[in-house]
Amino acid sequence: MEKNKKYTLKVIIIGDPAVGKTSLVKKFVSGKFSKDYRASIGTNIFIKKINLENKIETTLQLWDIAGQEKWIKMRRPYYSGARGVLIVGDLTRRNTFEQIEKFWVPDIKKYCDIAPIVLLANKNDLENLIDEKEIKSLGEKINVVSIIYTSAKTGENVEMAFKIISEQAMKTYY
């Protein structure tokens, strides 16, 4: 990788509705957290420039993809060109982690097989209803490069999560 070259990485953020995908992205991009929940329509695209290891300037295109089933037909073009995947589960809702294995991973494997996956166990500021061992087991089953416990509300590990997926995406892409 050339230090003076500018890189662009498309990272998709997926998971069930209301797991905190948009909140995580907004916290990362603007540093803000909103308590208001509004379902994403299709996809929201955010841009943020960051410096990775070796001071490599990178522009992240963050595609926050709607989790509702009605958007299933639109996901394929949204996934196209992704170099990294953040899959988000909600620690207060077990079924969101079950859906990661049953639906989300098979769905992305169809369209972006080479993209590294980071599993985000979000809402770590609330009572966890899922055992750490279960999340670790899921991570192994779906072959993630990392599992990160996050809170969009407090900002816990949010910056780190986006840095890790960006660095992993750079390794496989450039």
Main sheet record: 6 strands, mixed
Task: Tell me the number of helical segments per DSSP (H or I, 4 or more residues long).
Answer: 5
Gyration radius, to the nearest Å? 15 Å
Percent helix, as a range, is 25-40%
CATH architecture: 3-Layer(aba) Sandwich
CATH class call: Alpha Beta
| Element-level helix/strand string | EHEEHEHEHEH
Fourth-tier CATH superfamily name: P-loop containing nucleotide triphosphate hydrolases
Query: According to CATH, what is the topology?
Result: Rossmann fold
Taken from the alpha-carbon principal axes, the silhouette is globular
CA-to-CA gap between the ends?
A: 7 Å
Averaged pLDDT: 86
Q: What structural category arises from helix and sheet content?
A: alpha/beta
Tell me the count of domains: 1
Order of neighbouring strands in the sheet with most strands: 2-3-1-4-5-6
What's the SSE blueprint?
Elements (H helix, E strand, L loop, with lengths): L6 E8 L6 H10 L12 E9 L5 E9 L9 H5 L4 E7 L3 H18 L5 E6 L9 H10 L4 E4 L8 H16 L1
Task: Provide a descriptive summary of the structure in words.
This protein is of the alpha/beta class and 174 residues long. The protein has a single domain (7-173), classed as P-loop containing nucleotide triphosphate hydrolases (Rossmann fold). It has 5 helices and 6 strands, in the order E-H-E-E-H-E-H-E-H-E-H. The chain has helices at 21-30, 75-79, 94-111, 132-141, 158-173, and strands at 7-14, 43-51, 57-65, 84-90, 117-122, 146-149. The chain has a 6-stranded mixed β-sheet with strand order 2-3-1-4-5-6, with helices on both faces. Strand 4 (84-90), helix 3 and strand 5 (117-122) form a beta-alpha-beta unit. The N and C termini lie close together (7 Å). The model has no long low-confidence stretch (mean pLDDT 86).
